[in-house]
Design a protein that fits this description.
mainly alpha; 3 helices; elongated
Amino acid sequence: MMVLLSRLLPNPKLETSVLAISLNTSATIYMIPLELSAAASTRASNELGAGRPRAASLAVCVTVFMVATEGILSGTVMILSRKFWGYFYSKDE
């Protein structure tokens, strides 16, 4: 739907390219916390099943710390590289 609506903008080809870059980047960055959360859920379930609630709590705390750190780092990298991020995909200006 967004691609269809982009034709109303002044430069539809450029706007569609920017949209594709933004969506690909956000999807890639979203996958890291998703995978860490799935692994932590499995680890916490195994620890709880083994009767070790403190180990399960530690696994969840470590995962939350890792996801927060990844979010801060990826956000910082995206903000710092906003001037040349598009050039990784295309040489157009």
